[in-house]
């Protein structure tokens, strides 16, 4: 038995934040400047009462409605989020009930950001190819907007809320559809992309709610998401090319044998820089973030879905996936599209 | 060896101004366009043109254009 991605669906909340709106709110940067750096036209923002689990449930329902699988056939739910409904219980347990999954289903949350989708594929493949289960529902969902101060352009212009549901199934085959993998972790970069307060290390207090203004006029408190864009850029340049080389070496493949490169859709500027740095042709490098922004763990499945819909991703093709970001954490794998 | 004149030309282009505007002594905090976007563009330019690995934290300690030049010149190759 081999694990393979059978279907992907995604869901975006209704409310949007356009680049034009951001340029109106922060007039010292034009819409053109924001667009040039991010490549994002609009981000979708969860409603006040809408949580990551709600987005994930909608994405999974689209998967069921498309006939990819029935709820009763799912035997494991992997839920990747950094914005869970509660500290406890596990959000995946709440989603089991809402999705009418059988009570015999295995379900767990895992807390990863931009590297989470590839990690999820690795976990799903392990569960399937060790014979534990046959049908894994991998849901990635994030509502970073709830961590973002409304007067912080640095992160508001990048991140959007979304969820993706990916069905990983056991198929009769001697050929692999997933792997090998490379993983990486460097916790020394934790402070570069962080919500400092709100967990057990630094509970929310009146003091953590005090808003400070940075040198560019962005406002945030310690309850808010902070990103040091320069540091994250440096990190990306230092790990992604090496991860690509390591993955190719582990797979005994060359760049020319890869049909499509789908990286975490961080922003258009960094993606284009990585593409040129690694000498990847535009035709083989997939970008799909204009309509939704950086959706953290859902960027790769959203891009895969678009590549499938527009014919860039076809049966039998070999795809390189690389996720990188918050942690720092990174991951890469090769995917043979079924 | 990174040519000082070439570096200044790259910085002029990055800051969206006419060639040979900068002399090197300009304080960064007096350059309106030197912001977080310019920082990322700078890191990308250094990586692409000079193939040097510069840390963002080191850039933030620079006070002038020539400080940036010295940092890039002394940074290791990729």
Description of the molecule:
The complex is a heterodimer of chains A (338) and B (78). Chain A has 338 residues and is α+β, with helices and mostly antiparallel strands. Chain A is built from nine helices and 15 strands. In chain A, the strands form five sheets. Chain A has a five-stranded mixed sheet, sandwiched between helices. In chain A, strands 8-15-14-13 form a four-stranded mixed sheet, with helices on both faces. In chain A, strands 2-3 form a two-stranded antiparallel ribbon. The longest helix of chain A is centred in the last third of the chain and has 23 residues, at 229-251. Chain A is globular. With 78 residues, chain B is an all-alpha fold. Chain B is globular. Chain B starts with a helix and ends with a helix. The model of chain B has no long low-confidence stretch (mean pLDDT 93). The interface between A and B is medium-sized, with 18 and 17 residues.
SSE class of chain A: alpha+beta
Class from secondary-structure proportions of chain B = mainly alpha
**Strand sequence of the main sheet of chain A, in spatial order?**
1-7-6-4-5
Q: What integer value in Å does the Rg of chain A equal?
A: 19 Å
Largest sheet of chain A: 5 strands, mixed
Order of helices and strands of chain A: EEHHEHEHEHEHEEEEEEHEHHEE
Could you tell me how far the N terminus lies from the C terminus of chain A, measured between alpha carbons in angstroms?
14 Å
Shape annotation of chain A: globular
Measured distance between first and last alpha carbons of chain B: 14 Å
Tell me the helix content of chain A: 25-40%
